[in-house]
Amino acid sequence: MNLNIIDDCLQIEFTFTEQLLAARLHKSWQIPLTNIIQVTTELPPNTWKEIRAPGTAIPGVIKTGTYYTDRGKEFWYVRRKNNFGNVLNIQLANESYQRIVLNNIENNDEWQQKLIPTKS
User: Fold this and answer.
1) How confident is the model over 24-40, as pLDDT tens digits?
2) Number of domains in the chain
3) Which domain holds residue 82?
């Protein structure tokens, strides 16, 4: 997966394998930076009140795809590598998803700083 900022949008590009595992039809995802309301480097807590549809899940190994939780509709692409480290937890407004959770992101602290909304 590759992250870029292009024309004031966060662009997330998925590999073919990542698309298959997450059941994502599109290779890239564009999110206006103005729709990002908070970014952290911690995994949100798992909840038993979640429904995966569609995606892939093997507890303790991989959690990918769309999840409906008590927090709202979320997209996860999290794999056990580096002990589930290097997380980007992106909360959104005015999007179909309320949250995007990614891991194994190189320089996740730098990405957090790039994506944190600035107060005008």
Assistant:
1) 778 899 999 999 999 99
2) 1
3) 31-115
